[in-house]
Amino acid sequence: xxxAVLAGSxxxxxxxxxxxxxxxxxxxxxxxxTRKTLPHTSSSLTPxxxxxxxxxxxxxxxxxxxxxxxxxxxxxxxxxxxxQRKVDYDLNLALATKAKExxxxxxxxxxxxxxxxxxxxxxxxxxGELEEAVKAxxxxxxxxxxxxxxxxxxxxxxxxVLRRVKGLLRxxxxxxxxxxxxxxxxxxxxxxxxxxxxxxxxxxxxxxRVLGGGEIIRLGK
Length: 221
Description:
Blueprint: E1 2-7, H1 14-23, E2 27-34, E3 45-49, E4 66-69, H2 75-78, H3 81-101, E5 106-110, H4 122-137, E6 141-145, E7 149-150, H5 157-181, E8 182-183, H6 185-200, E9 208-211, H7 213-220
Helix pairs in contact: 1-6, 3-4, 6-7
């Protein structure tokens, strides 16, 4: 049976990842980093609670086979890009490094569709740099989940604009066109868990797998 670790367990994509891990028959234990009480209750769930996320690496268990990270923040919430990077890059890499040192075999990261370490723009460059740093850790299997727009319920100006674009795409190209451009957190979470467990079962060809929009839909629906 599998012990899984999750970072970002209360976030937009982390919440459904936690739900699907707890429902997976092959997963006997889920240990989830958190700063607050988790919305889930299960005998197989162990919260790894610390108010300062930068202490989380010290809590990483020694018996986990697979690690999922949906850990991310926004520039607005963090208070600027440099503080965002401390979470999205620094903390993610510190956790990944600890996972590798602890013997974890499979690493799954919810990244971004435009991740590119050579980008001129800060956000995609940061995401691409994180992917490159994680690849260098050389897990047995690494999976980068690269969703497009994550279609949620947040009521921001940007979200409202993107929701209108989504409606236009559906009108022009139907649900299939929308699926490849935007995926729901539920679909992303299911795809991440399925891909990760497949890798752990020896069903992944190659060390690194990248899930784009089409494969996220295929695995997550």
